What does this fold into?
Amino acid sequence: MIERHLIRIKARHSLSMDEEQAIRDLVPTPRHVPRNSVIVREGERLEASTLLLDGLLCRYKDMPDGKRQITQIHVAGDFADLHAFTLKRLEHNIMTLTDCTLSRVPHESIRILVEQQPRLGRLYWFSTNLDASMNREWELSLGQRSAAGRLAALFCELHYRLAMIEMDGERFSLGMNQAQLADALGMTAVHVNRTLRLLRDQKLLDYHRGEATILDLKGLEALAEFDPGYLYLDADPL
Amino acid sequence: MIERHLIRIKARHSLSMDEEQAIRDLVPTPRHVPRNSVIVREGERLEASTLLLDGLLCRYKDMPDGKRQITQIHVAGDFADLHAFTLKRLEHNIMTLTDCTLSRVPHESIRILVEQQPRLGRLYWFSTNLDASMNREWELSLGQRSAAGRLAALFCELHYRLAMIEMDGERFSLGMNQAQLADALGMTAVHVNRTLRLLRDQKLLDYHRGEATILDLKGLEALAEFDPGYLYLDADPL
DNA sequence: CGTAGTTTTGAGATCGGTCAATATTTGTGG
DNA sequence: CCACAAATATTGACCGATCTCAAAACTACG
It folds into this structure.
């Protein structure tokens, strides 16, 4: 089950036998969590970080008046809250979008790993920096793109990220309803609905009850002015 | 000149004499750069990271059609692109907002430091994770807050960050014109102008030619529903 | 098969954008 | 110090993307 995590790493960085084994040894027995479960709450002290082995989850922030912003989506192979290794508590929540398989890796194990294998330390540091790059791209999206552009950019990103872990990037189950898409894209559910229809009419994207089908990737990329550079799909050696 | 950097660190984490000296030894002779200078360009390979000793600078992303999003502002004491230590090249640009004093720290020095002083390694990892937290808060701002709320939140953030490095958080020179504020807040310069007038009329904030005066911090916080938790002003020990 | 959740649609309102003109400030050369 | 140019800020009129509110249609599921 840890294979997706290794695939994701190896796509960007080489791993020695030794290093790969060290990672395998890091990950305890996984558990299953149903969809729409909150697995990390804002402010709680964390002694372990969650490695997502299968499924999708998201990070989100709530405001006192009920507004919600989903700040990032995680796919299989991602550490969902590796940043808690240094932050200790998070300023956001994390919830599953689909049924998930995940493993809790104690921070103490991570500390020992990164001290004994400094290159793996940099590799996991890279991983949190990559998350931040996605956060910045979402800032760009929220600040500068139209509703259709934001929607297009989101599905372009998911396409590349899923393809990287050798999953189908053309057709996938996101598990998000239109209200959740709205929370991720800074718009209302009503407008998500109308914009999805627009994209469907233009034969760019079909989204039906949480199932996404990318009909025209190039068209979506053009609409969003999407540049996958921020995903660091081909990383330099550490 | 490195004092602000140390102040910033010590506000959150204790430092042994040894560790403090290691940090002092890390930082080469600073140089001065005038305002509005681009110091890092998207995609260029970086062998060093920039420690900002004095002044303000920002990270920004440009789109093919000319739209621009400023994704973060850095204050004195911040590493502006420590994430380049692992990413090697950045997907955004960095430019100075005011005249700046900065020092370029070679990645090789950083690598040696974090291997020899794992606790400092975690501390600098924390620092990039803190940047990411601010990126997430800006996502929230861009996605959920009104124009006035976004403006208010920006100045609340700057207030706390400047106060942390023992600078005046009530009155400071941002060096940004209204068009730049617009690029940071996902709005147009015209609307920034109108919203600034609104905040001035409400005796919340005065902004005149790059000089900010916070007239009513609590009022701004209420308007923005601002919660400084994401700034991790009181961090846990590493 | 009833009920709750979700999606779809319509009508109208509004926040913020666009375009364009004017005013103000800053910088520069003489 | 002045004259001018360039950048920046301000204001007005109008526009439109997106929101709000509300109802209806659809879907999933016990």
